[in-house]
From TrEMBL:
Keywords: Aminotransferase, Pyridoxal phosphate, Transferase. Its cofactor is pyridoxal 5'-phosphate. Belongs to the class-I pyridoxal-phosphate-dependent aminotransferase family. GO terms for biological process: amino acid metabolic process. Pfam families: Aminotran_1_2. This is Aminotransferase. GO terms for molecular function: L-aspartate:2-oxoglutarate aminotransferase activity; pyridoxal phosphate binding. Residues 35-381 form the Aminotransferase class I/classII large domain. It comes from the Bacteria. Its EC number is 2.6.1.-. It catalyses: L-aspartate + 2-oxoglutarate = oxaloacetate + L-glutamate.
Amino acid sequence: MSLIDSFRAEARAAPESGIVAVVNYGRLREGLIPLWAGEGDLPTPAFITDAASKALAGGETFYTWQRGIPDLRQALARYYARHFGKTFPEEQFIVTGSGMHAIQMSLTALAGAGDEVIYLSPAWPNFDAAAALSGAVPVPVTLDHSGNGWSCDVEKIAAAITPRTKALFINTPSNPTGWTADHETLQAILDLARAKNVWIIADEIYSLFHYGHGRAPSFLDIATEEDRILFVNSFSKNWAMTGWRVGWIKTHPSLQQVFENLIQYSNSGVAQFMQRGAVAALDEGDGFVAEQVERARKARDLVCGILGATGSARFTVPQGAFYLFFAVDGITDSRAAAFDIVDKANVGLAPGTAFGPGGEAFLRLCFHRRLDQVEDAAHRLAKWMRTV
């Protein structure tokens, strides 16, 4: 028996990220424009790093509250009051070591061996893999795509529910499609979850990156305190903090101790000086976020205009998040296409195959970068399209 044969089957089956495979192939190419990862090109702003540096220099390097320092949980309450018009006590917030950690803790709490967790696909691949690692069975339900854009057929979700279903994972605005649920769709999903007595894991990480009027619709707009919803979120996207690995869960106060225990036995809490930076992000960062959303809007419109003019790119202008999920006439294998684009256009994109059922023919482009880079990349891609 080899060394790996003694590992758990779930660990052995964990897939290589289809995004990282392309990144590793092209990351050292001179002059390559990297639009493959889900992050912007700006470093964390000084008002955040200064707060963390001050705390670090001040000796805030010891063990801290597993559920998060009170100052950060209070700042989260203020954030929700401003952006969602809801008043929540600090006891409803748990600080996690990233949004991914928040998802893992939610899955640990809800699903184990043989349980099923439904998610909407195409989807960020980490959820599918995290569910499988927990021993659960991830069940994709594909979003519909037509000339009218992406949409969610709630009846398809209902048909996928079985006695083993423990939770529905709902990411809106969506990575990678940009699909954003309206209140009617959210209400239908919530009604279904109530009727079937299943949980919702609500990933609303991109709620502020919404190109309508204000933030995106949220389950918080329609839910009651007793609804079975875990809200998972991250500091990564809104405040240019992808490398910090800080996130949170919003949950019912009665579940605080359970999640504190799960934090204790996973990462034992987020470094306190990093949490000080997160406080600054929440309390001082609304202007920064607004600037980034407007910048992303301009980049979205720019890339959609250039690629749309080719006549061979098929896409729906995203309502939220900061990705263009597009297909190219004649391309059916997006993984092979992503490698070819690295070689011939010197642009890094994520292949749609990485995002599961419904994404195979698409490519994901992150346009959350400065406009001249996005414009250059779009023209390179348009040139490449003329050769396929």
